[in-house]
């Protein structure tokens, strides 16, 4: 079945350390790819998106993501995590064959240690 | 409005009762989505409205779930004969025209608890 997988349910990282969140998709065609963040008490916010071109995309809040076609992955990274990055992160894909809607992964909850 | 507004923010109901959840999208946005976020689960697509087109209901989990969108603006998600497994956060989102390259704007959600 077509799907979006975020293998890590929880990740704990120390403040100042680097962060990488994994996302894999299983669609025949290259989908349009997104990362959203859901901070406590706030709605989901778009971090970044990839449609085509340069496979390394920059987003807000210092995040970046790299699309790797060979691995069907779109991993999110941040070089140095801040306490305010504690949130739940969702990878999402948009595939024309699946209708005009985003399909989300299960999410990864990030905890930041002082 | 300034953002997507959902009401109520919290709803506690008894098993078997009907509930209505409301979504007021950003003014001018023609695309409106409902998602469900259960504890420990990702966002599950429920239904999508785009302008005057027939809605995409492919994500509704059972015939107890229905939604309508009046006048191309406000939407109501109705759950009949609620069950405990319906407990979740119901999120509404809107975008300008439903195109893939548009950002979805999400509301803060309605936390539904079925006792």
Could you explain the architecture of this structure?
The complex is a heterodimer of chains A (114) and B (115). With 114 residues, chain A is mostly beta strands. Chain A is built from no helices and 12 strands. In chain A, strands 2, 5, 6, 10, 11 and 12 form a 6-stranded mixed β-sheet that branches. In chain A, a hairpin with a 7-residue loop joins strand 10 and strand 11. Chain A is globular, with a radius of gyration of 14 Å. Chain B is mainly beta and 115 residues long. Helices cover 0% and strands 46% of the residues of chain B. Chain B contains no helices and 10 strands. In chain B, the strands form 2 sheets. In chain B, strands 2, 4, 5, 8, 9 and 10 form a 6-stranded mixed β-sheet that branches. Chain B has a 4-stranded antiparallel β-sheet with strand order 1-3-7-6, with no helix packed on it. In chain B, strand 4 and strand 5 form a beta hairpin. Chain B starts with a strand and ends with a strand. In chain B, 35% of the residues are buried. The model of chain B has no long low-confidence stretch (mean pLDDT 92). At the A-B interface, strand 6, strand 10 and strand 11 of A face strand 4, strand 5 and strand 9 of B.
């Amino acid at each position: 079945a077509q799907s979006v997988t975020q293998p890590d349910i929880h990740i704990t990282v120390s403040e100042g350390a680097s962060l990488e969140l994994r996302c894999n998709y299983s669609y025949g065609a290259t989908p349009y790819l997104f990362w959203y963040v859901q901070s406590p008490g706030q709605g989901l916010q778009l971090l970044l998106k990839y449609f085509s071109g340069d496979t390394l995309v920059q987003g807000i809040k210092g995040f970046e993501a790299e699309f790797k076609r060979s691995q069907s992955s779109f991993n999110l990274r941040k070089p140095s995590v801040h306490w305010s990055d504690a949130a739940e992160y969702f990878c999402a894909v948009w595939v024309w064959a699946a209708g005009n809607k985003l399909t989300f992964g299960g999410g990864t909850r990030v905890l930041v240690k002082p | 409005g300034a953002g997507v507004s959902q009401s109520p923010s919290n709803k506690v109901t008894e098993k078997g009762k009907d509930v209505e959840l409301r979504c007021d999208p950003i003014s001018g946005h023609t695309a409106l989505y409902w998602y469900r976020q259960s504890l420990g689960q990702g966002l599950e697509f429920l239904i999508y409205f785009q302008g005057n087109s027939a809605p995409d209901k492919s994500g509704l989990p059972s015939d107890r779930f229905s939604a309508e969108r009046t006048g191309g603006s406000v939407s109501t998600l109705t759950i009949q004969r609620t069950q405990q497994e319906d407990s979740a956060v119901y999120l509404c989102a809107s975008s300008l025209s439903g195109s893939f390259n548009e950002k979805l704007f999400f509301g803060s959600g309605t936390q539904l608890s079925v006792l």
